[in-house]
């Protein structure tokens, strides 16, 4: 009985693995192939590195090298917002973890409520607020909302509640350290794992955010990569017949689009690789009470 059960389990896992792995493999191999090969050839096949260089040349030439601008904009928005998130979230989580003040439970409850709210539900009030401040169309209209990251506050709160020994804080206070010195010299250095965790989740969320920049930014030179890819897709006749070309040509799948999508994932992959060890420490650091 055990062998058939293991076989069924393996078959189910293999089916799901193939289902999710094939599109990713296709995306990786697509820039190496020509337009015709993508349609007529085997879906999973390698072309040539020359075709990758040609696809990049076409992509880079699109609308005056605007793809580079989209990548730079996204890095600027994501890194700026993530820096603000770290500066705000860690002290806020620390204060909620060790502070005893009126309204503490209410703040925690509101943090949880905002975490589970759909991001699209806040777009309209954010738009009205930024419009009243005359920030629509500026980089701050994207950075400031991105910096609002209640999940980071909650991560810091959980970490400090479960992984920070109260005796360390008491010892620092006995030695004459004030609350600010205690945080900067004791609590903050111990929070390196959760700092990496907040940085990663905030950076990924900011990098992948589409709807908010789409609503707030009108100039294509200010687009992040998510909105830029949508604009690139809309500019392709095969995907948008209204711009000409029709939808039945052999250029249904473009290596340039696949390469643009693939390159848009590279920064996130780099961040993940360099922060992987810290991410694991951050995830397990607050799992048990020390």
Describe this structure in words.
This protein is mainly α and 290 residues long. The chain has one domain: MetI-like fold. It is built from 14 helices and no strands. The longest helix is centred in the N-terminal third of the chain and has 33 residues. The C terminus is likely disordered.
Give me the secondary-structure topology.
Blueprint: H1 2-29, H2 35-40, H3 49-61, H4 66-98, H5 104-116, H6 123-132, H7 140-147, H8 150-163, H9 166-174, H10 179-187, H11 192-208, H12 211-216, H13 225-234, H14 255-285
Helix pairs in contact: 3-14, 4-7, 4-8, 4-11, 5-8, 8-11, 9-10, 11-14, 13-14
Number of strands: 0
| Distance between the amino and carboxyl termini | 43 Å
Number of helical elements: 14
- Helix percentage: over 70%
CATH superfamily: MetI-like
What is the average of the pLDDT values?
82
Query: How many structurally independent domains?
Result: 1
The main β sheet shows up as: none
Poorly predicted segments:
245-252, 286-290
The assigned CATH architecture is: Orthogonal Bundle
CATH topology: MetI-like fold
- Structural class, by secondary structure, is mainly alpha
> In sequence order, what are the helices and strands, one letter per element?
HHHHHHHHHHHHHH
């Amino acid at each position: 009985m055990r062998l058939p059960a293991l076989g069924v389990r393996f078959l189910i896992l293999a089916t799901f693995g193939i289902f999710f792995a094939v599109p990713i493999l296709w995306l990786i191999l697509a820039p190496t192939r020509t337009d015709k090969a993508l349609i007529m050839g085997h879906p999973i096949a390698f072309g040539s590195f020359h075709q990758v260089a040609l696809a990049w040349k076409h992509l880079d030439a699109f609308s005056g090298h605007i793809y580079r601008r989209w990548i730079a904009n996204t890095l600027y928005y994501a890194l700026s917002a993530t820096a603000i998130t770290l500066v705000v979230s860690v002290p806020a989580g620390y204060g909620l973890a060790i502070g005893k003040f009126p309204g503490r439970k209410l703040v925690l409850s509101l943090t949880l409520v905002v975490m589970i709210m759909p991001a699209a539900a806040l777009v309209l009030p954010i738009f009205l607020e930024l419009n009243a401040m005359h920030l629509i169309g500026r980089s701050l209209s994207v950075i400031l909302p991105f910096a609002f990251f209640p999940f980071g506050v909650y991560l810091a709160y959980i970490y400090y509640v479960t992984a920070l020994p109260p005796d360390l804080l008491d010892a620092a206070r006995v030695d004459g350290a004030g609350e600010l010195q205690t945080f900067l010299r004791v609590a903050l250095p111990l929070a390196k794992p959760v700092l990496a965790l907040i940085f990663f989740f905030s950076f990924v969320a900011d990098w992948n955010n589409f709807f908010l920049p789409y609503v707030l930014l009108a100039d294509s030179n200010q687009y992040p990569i998510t909105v830029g890819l949508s604009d690139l897709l809309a500019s392709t006749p095969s995907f948008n017949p209204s711009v000409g070309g029709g939808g039945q040509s052999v250029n249904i799948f473009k290596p340039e689009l696949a390469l643009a999508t693939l390159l848009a994932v590279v920064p996130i992959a780099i961040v993940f690789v360099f922060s992987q060890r810290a991410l694991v420490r951050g995830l397990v650091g607050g799992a048990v009470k020390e």
